[in-house]
Specification:
Layout: H1 18-25, E1 31-36, H2 57-67, E2 71-74, H3 75-95, E3 102-103, H4 108-117, H5 131-139, H6 142-147, E4 154-160, H7 165-168, E5 185-188, H8 189-198, H9 221-224, H10 231-244, E6 262-269, E7 272-280, H11 285-293, E8 301-305, H12 323-339, H13 349-359, H14 365-371
Parallel strand pairs: 1-2, 1-4, 3-8, 4-5, 7-8
Antiparallel strand pairs: 6-7
The chain binds iron/sulfur cluster.
Length: about 375
């Protein structure tokens, strides 16, 4: 039967007033933008009887416009930005003797866990905000600049497969100095399905298709695979290897794919040895961290995702009957990556434009101000 979905790190459960959002979406005086996480496009269809893994991105964009969102954007765009920032940070630590191993920071379930249980590793976490929060910060700065809508007038909504994202956006480090949040409201995949049903939109019989709105809508295949365990690492390696000048192995890193709880790979990129690891499921984090502390594990770069399988199996995603459903979602996801015209984050044309016109360079002053954060120990 249907299993009960519970976030592995006990994040807030779904509680949101969808009726209020629905009401605001019909109000022409409100300017509401939405970002949709990579996992949504290959999972939400299940709520309407569509086969797991089916990519219904274009239908989703059209349906979100029908709901009344003023601009429909993609978290894939900011996932590519995350790779630009995190890849730059890793290369800086790696080549200049910085703190290693570096851990990914896009999963708030993992960040909460590290702050509560392993504060001794906080300096090892990448300082990059997650793709959700990077998008939010850009929606109140870059988007305001190009659209002419004041930051205080932009209401930024995100659709996430994750209940932990609902306490990420209320962190005091995820707002400007006046207390304006980067992301105003987070709704889960299942809540969005409810919102569609409330508006009598059935995605299964829905014919319309549209493209994402421009300048914060483009995403590469690398961004898409963020939704799977191993995906953030693979996306980072695609960019890091190009920056290092690696020519023989730079697109698919099958070494880091899979469903094992801990996966390790030893890569030689442009003559340099890089040790990476992927931690799949939060219960595998503590034994791994202990082995790093004891010096039994040598590693440079580590991805941690709290949910087994990654965001495809997040606490806010449609509840799968079993892991076979998650595996089918994953096949659909990597298929979407393969079909993408661009598969490396640094090739994203809108991301290039963002850096040229607004941010300057990855890891630069403006990026640090808007897109990076810090962590604090919450150990009792
Ligand atoms: Fe959320 Fe994804 Fe982390 Fe699960 S793996 S807690 S869905 S970010």
């Amino acid at each position: 039967g249907q299993c009960v979905k519970i976030c592995p790190v006990g994040a807030l459960h779904e509680k949101i007033d969808l009726k209020n959002l629905n009401h605001d979406l019909k109000n022409p005086m409100k300017h509401i933008v939405v970002q949709m996480a990579p996992a949504i496009k290959n999972t939400i269809g299940e709520e309407f009887g569509i086969l797991p893994g089916t990519d219904i991105t274009k239908k989703m964009v059209a349906a979100l416009k029908d709901l009344g969102f003023d601009r429909v954007f993609s978290t894939d765009f900011s996932a590519d930005v995350t790779i630009m920032e995190e890849g730059t940070e890793f290369l800086d630590r790696f080549t200049n003797g910085g703190k290693l191993p570096m851990f990914t920071s896009c999963c708030p379930g993992w960040i909460n866990y590290a702050e509560i249980n392993h504060p001794e590793f906080l300096d090892n976490l990448s300082s990059c905000k997650s793709p959700q929060q990077i998008f939010g910060a850009l929606s109140k700065s870059y988007y305001s600049k190009i659209s002419g809508v004041e930051p205080s007038e932009v209401y930024s909504v995100s659709i996430m497969p994750c209940t932990a994202k609902k306490d990420e956006n209320i962190r005091d480090t995820m707002m400007d100095h006046e207390g304006n949040k980067d992301v105003d409201m987070v709704i889960t995949t299942r809540e969005l399905a409810k919102l569609f049903k409330l508006n009598k939109i059935n995605l299964a019989g829905y014919e319309k298709e549209e493209e994402f709105d421009r300048l914060l809508g483009e995403g590469t295949g690398a961004a898409r695979i963020f939704a799977s365990t191993g995906g953030v690492m693979e996306a980072a390696l695609r960019t890091v290897s190009d920056v290092l000048g690696e020519t023989s192995h730079s697109l698919e890193y099958k070494e880091v794919r899979g469903f094992e709880g801990v996966r390790r790979a030893n890569l030689v990129l442009a003559g340099k040895e890089v040790n990476v690891a992927v931690i799949n499921g939060i219960k595998n984090a503590t034994p791994f961290l202990e082995s790093v502390k004891k010096g039994e594990t040598t590693v440079d770069f580590v991805e941690v995702m709290a949910c087994v399988g990654g965001c495809l199996n997040g606490g806010g995603a449609p509840a799968p009957d079993n892991m076979r459903v998650v595996a089918t979602r994953k096949i659909g996801l990597y298929d979407s990556d393969e079909k993408s015209a661009l598969r490396k984050s640094h090739e994203n044309l809108e991301v290039k434009k963002l850096y040229e016109d607004f941010l300057g360079k990855p890891g630069g002053h403006k990026s640090h101000h808007l897109l990076h954060t810090h962590y604090k120990s919450r150990k009792k």
